[in-house]
Amino acid sequence: MAKNKTVFFCRECGYESTKWMGQCPGCKQWDTFTEEPVVKKTAMRQPGITRTEPELLSKVAAVEDQRLLTGIQEFDRVLGGGIVIGSLVLVGGDPGIGKSTLLLQMSRELSDKQIKILYISGEESLKQIKIRADRLGVFHGELLLLSETNLDNIEDTIRKLMPQIVVIDSIQTMYKEEIGAAPGSVSQVRETTGILMHLAKGLEISIFIVGHVTKEGVVAGPKVLEHMVDTVLYFEGESKASYRILRAVKNRFGSTNEIGVFEMREKGLVEVTNPSEFMLQGKPEGEPGSVVTASMEGTRPILVEVQALICQTNFNMPRRTAAGTDYNRVNLLMAVLEKRLGIQLSGMDAYINVAGGMKINEPALDLAIVMAILSSYKNRSLDSRTICFGEIGLTGEVRAVNMAEQRVIEAGKMGFNAVLLPQMSKETISNTNIKLIGVRNIREIIKLFS
Ligand code: TYD
Ligand code: MG
Asked: Which of 152, 285, 336, 421 is the most exposed place for a label (fewest CB within 10 A)?
């Protein structure tokens, strides 16, 4: 009897190989390959695609994308100004972060506006969804629920009901019978997404797909689908902190710079319209090792607190940790401090933390990290009404950063009265009643501590 053919897929990025490999050549992750049966090509043929002829670009009518506003402003902004009709949106995130809650809240807002919406869950029974919905408050509109995992049935239902919006929660529970692999495998996840894509485009229905990010196990991650969908949103946050950030990492209909900030409360997600205030809650006043910086999240400045703790090490190798920012960058900045300012940090443990659980990886954070390290090392606090930002180069020079003015304005709004910033950036800012302290090199900031 002929042996059943199998292939190996990387669960993280979908890399395909005929043999098992320890490390994926595509995404360099270890131990991510799983064996799956080869999908027969006949099963992959999609119905409903019409043959089309090429058209002249000049003849193509440029129609503005039609958009539906969800009414959740943070969500609409991340989508690029509402939901584009006929788009396929992937909402990824760790299990339990609040994806189902967000999409159920979106469904509520839309159904309240008499928009026909179908929420399909493969993870929860109708009863469970009802319990969640009751927690979120009153649903005025008509919301259609379906608990189903068989994609053929889902397709039939969608074609029959013709809703305007469909939510698929989650793609890892959906399966198509013809494909021999288990639900959640790379082939299932890809095929089912492909079918949903054709449905969305063919019927002009906007479809939201939930994809769990999985660290281990046999479930394919949302990365496998990123190239297939129009928009990829990630819902992030520390599971212990209450705030959540919705970030667009790909958007065919808008900017990928936008973020939406939410807080998970007892009765669902609440929009956070002033993230700076939220992030600075509980900041200590006048403590060494704590500084505030302005970070750009897309076009939005957010003030965050950066903390450092520098202390004598008890080990042969000093311990260094960086929570919320790049570990290697912290090491580099410490090396710059050692070399350019002659500060002995090699025998010191260093713990750096971006308070509030935000993750920031922009160079403008450099100055704040350096200031926090110096402040903790010297055990002297900085003026609590001052913020700082700026990129630091290897010679210790403080380099200009983008959108300096927005950062300064945000500092003013939040009641800060002085900003330490690169001299080059200072020169671009006119008329502000905030005190601007321009620096060219980190040698100048050491004076602030003497
Ligand atoms: P959920 O939306 O189920 O996460 P996901 O779909 O991404 O797996 O979110 C579940 C978590 O959110 C759970 O830990 C409980 C919490 N939660 C609240 O704190 N308040 C609420 O109103 C709801 C509905 C959930
Ligand atoms: Mg869920």
From this structure: 285
Positive or negative: CA dihedral 215, 216, 222, 224:
positive
Percent over 90 (pLDDT), the chain: 61
For a pocket test of ligand 1, which of 97, 100, 101 has the largest count of ligand atoms closer than 8 A to its C-beta? Answer: 101
Structure tokens at 424: 């080059």
DSSP of 348-414: EEEEEEEGGG-----GGGHHHHHHHHHHHHHT-PPPTTEEE--EE-TTSBEEP-TTHHHHHHHHHHT
> What is the number of other CB atoms lying within 10 angstroms of the CB of residue 51?
4
Each residue of 219-253: pLDDT tens digit?
677 788 888 999 999 998 876 778 898 989 899 98
In this structure, the residue with its CA closest to atom 1 of ligand 1 is 98
The ligand with the least distance to the CA atom of 91 is 1
Mutate to test the pocket of ligand 1, among 208, 213, 264, 266 (most ligand atoms within 8 A of CB): 264
Is residue 373's pLDDT more than 80? yes
CA distance 180 to 155: 19
∠ CA 160-164-169, nearest 5°, is 85
Structural contact between residues 195 and 151, judged by C-beta atoms closer than 8 angstroms: yes
- What is the structure's pLDDT at 218? 60
CATH assignment of 278-449, among 3.40.50.1760, 3.30.360.10, 3.30.230.10, 3.40.640.10: 3.30.230.10
**Pairing mode, if any, of strands 398-399 and 348-354?**
unpaired
Mean pLDDT, residues 336-344: 93
Q: Where are the domains of the chain?
A: 6-37, 67-273, 278-449
133: CB partners within 8 A, 6+ apart: 104, 108, 139, 143
Q: How far is the CA of 194 from the centre of ligand 2 (A)?
A: 21
223, burial (CB in 10 Å: exposed 0-12, middle 13-18, buried 19+): buried
Q: 67-273 in CATH: which number?
A: 3.40.50.300
pLDDT per residue as tens digits for the range 258-288: 889 999 999 999 999 888 888 888 888 889 9
Q: Considering only CA atoms, which of 135, 131, 82, 141 is closest in space to residue 109?
A: 141
Q: What is the pTM for the complete model shown?
A: 0.80
Which atom, in ligand 1's list, is nearest to the CA of 242? 19
User: What residues sit around ligand 2, an ion, with C-beta below 5 angstroms?
Assistant: 100
